[in-house]
Amino acid sequence: MITILVLNKLADRHKTMINNVSEDLQVISCEWEDAGQYIAEADVLVAWGWMDIKALYLAAPKLKWVHALSAGVETMTFPEIQGSATVLTNSRGIHGIPIAEHIFAMALTFTRGLHLLLRQQLNKKWRRVPTDEIHEKTIGIIGLGSIGREIAKKAKGLGMHVVATKREITTELFVDKLYPPAELNTMLALCDFVVVALPLIAETQEYIRLEHFQVMKRSAYFFNISRGAVVREPDLIIALEQGLIAGAGLDVFETEPLPENNPLWERENVIITPHLAALSPYYLDRAIKLFTDNLARYMNGRDMFNIIDKQKGY
Q1: Helix, strand or coil for residue 245?
Q2: pTM of the model as a whole
Q3: Catalytic residues
Q4: Residue 180 to residue 172: CA distance in whole angstroms
Q5: Residue-wise pLDDT tens digits, 230-257
């Protein structure tokens, strides 16, 4: 019997999906504060990547596999798990649809002037604002993983030119040109919209800095849906204040919730959303489906999906 501890309340349909994999499973679904009651017997731990599971991990002598319901696992790659044989996997691949839709909701808000019109509506003002189109504009994607590919696909459907950076130059169906990371500035200079879709690891900490905003078009819009720490936030604020870019759509920040005294709140050309780009009523259905597919592979000794290199963090 394999005991699976899930640190999230599951609907009956989710428990059924897991139990359908095998008769030799015990599924326990609980909130974080109750996990201590069950962790000692857990063979598999399913948690969110932002949870600090270190204390639970150290109290789990039977644990062989940790699965993150999210894509990010930055709090899960602590030294004890790095030095162990415990398998670590994530839910990479299920976030692309809502995040891509979120990006284009923000992009269209800027090009159609909705961010200005909504403010005017509150004051009952009837006044036209400048508008633009995204058709035939160039979107640059920094980090072409599963989320970046979904953004690229939707961008092509909207008639955009797509460029991206990627460590390995591969053939990509929806990308017009790929650039290696060393040529990031060359790519940025071409873009009307720039999207950051990088994981947060040591190499990507403050990856986007003032020098990058300085080479961008002054008419360009910048979007971050990865992690706040990937962008040097004071440099982004300078870029907005100096007009180096036209605006920014931000779902993630260095400090969350975003402090009330942060100057980003006051800027008319900034759209702020509270780290919800990946949220969807279908999120957990997709996450559990991915987990059960991996669980079947785990139980049958087959290669698993989304195994994290615990030293690299992705």
Answers
A1: coil
A2: 0.93
A3: 227, 256, 275
A4: 14
A5: 999 999 999 999 999 999 999 999 999 9
Distance CA 297, CA 78 (A): 26
**Amino acid at position 28, single letter:** I
Q: Confirm if 233 and 206 have CB atoms less than 8 A apart.
A: no
Residues 11 and 35: beta-carbon distance below 8 Å: no
Task: Give tens-digit pLDDT for 115-165.
Answer: 999 999 999 999 999 999 999 999 999 999 999 999 999 999 999 999 999
What number of CA atoms fall less than 13 Å from residue 164's CA on the CB side?
31
CA distance 162 to 55: 44
Token digits for 249?
């759509």
Q: Could you give the maximum distance between any two Cα atoms of the chain, in Å?
A: 67
Give, for 42, the enclosing helix (H) or strand (E): none
Phi, psi at 214, each rounded to 5°: -70, -25
